Amino acid sequence: MTSVNSIAAVLVCAGSGKRFGDESQSPKQYQLLKGSPVYTWGLRCLLDHERINRVVLVVATDMEEDIKTDVEKWITKGLEKLSVTTGGATRQASVFNGLKLLSQQESLPDAVLVHDAARPFINATILDDVIKCVEKEQACTVGSPVSDTVKRVDDSIIGETVDRTNLVAVQTPQAARFSELFKAHQRAEADGWVTTDDAAIMEMAGYKVSVVLSTRWNIKITTKEDLRICEALALAINR
Q1: Handedness of CA 223, 227, 230, 232 (dihedral sign)
Q2: Helices H, strands E: what count in the chain?
Q3: How far apart are CA 83 and CA 214, in angstroms?
Q4: How many CB atoms lie under 10 A from the CB of residue 160?
Q5: pTM for the full predicted model
Q6: How far apart are CA 161 and CA 239, in angstroms?
Q7: Model confidence over 8-62: pLDDT tens digits?
Q8: Distance CA 50, CA 56 (A)
Q9: pLDDT tens, 57-74?
Q10: Is 195 helix (H, G, I), strand (E, B) or coil?
Q11: Running DSSP on this structure, what letter comes out for residue 163?
């Protein structure tokens, strides 16, 4: 495979956060976590990483101007790497918009990482592991082995106990060679594929996706309870 010299990242921050609370509240990624918005935790980590040359922050259409101003309150280093663009109606569309912005820049990145802003506890080690993997493989995602017993349920009745031996709970960041992920998203739009993550798009396009084991800290904030858990974790891991 060709070498990976230029690496970009897309941070998806355009979700409405409907499962987090009522519509009067800000979406989860804009809630404060230990004094700063959730989205800034992942953004700061991506901007700080020496191998990542460019970061695209994808936000809701009505948030673009506010975020461009707001981000300078919280981030002091690496802003020269940052671009902001607007998302779409779905996460998939938002990622595609971020990739489109990268495709319009003077030079294309060799690889791209996609991360959800609602996962605040990524760190340099996770990013290092993902970058090492995408340097060798077509695509990769971070994930952790499923530790709970898994049941398939229909109408509140257990129909099957699923063998968890080979099950992995998939997280982000996910990574791929830029040209291949961009082409996969173009095909997804043309053929009407609907997926929940970029690993699935790469799978559907015929690529092999490797798994990089992640830390249990890399949780996603979906509900208010998740935010409270993250507040406790932030204190426990001194972040």
Answers
A1: negative
A2: 7, 11
A3: 27
A4: 10
A5: 0.93
A6: 38
A7: 999 999 876 555 455 546 788 999 999 999 999 999 999 999 999 999 999 998 8
A8: 16
A9: 999 988 888 888 889 999
A10: coil
A11: P
Angle between helix axes 38-48 and 64-74 (nearest 10 degrees) is 70
Torsion of CA 19, 22, 24, 28, to 10 degrees: -30
CA-to-CA dists, residue 91 to 59, 88, 196, angstroms: 11, 7, 7
CATH superfamily of this structure's domain 7-236: Spore Coat Polysaccharide Biosynthesis Protein SpsA; Chain A (3.90.550.10)
Q: Where are the alpha helices (DSSP H) in 112-223?
A: 124-136, 178-191, 198-204
Q: Determine the average pLDDT of the residues in 71-96.
A: 94
Q: In 174-206, which positions are buried (b, 16+ CB within 10 angstroms) versus exposed (e)?
A: bbbbbebbbebbeebeeeeeebebbbbbbeebe
Dihedral-angle region of residue 187 (phi above 0 means left; psi in -120 to 50 means alpha; beta otherwise):
alpha
Burial class (CB in 10 A: 0-12, 13-18, 19+), 106: exposed
Give strand pairing partners of 55.
Answer: 9, 82
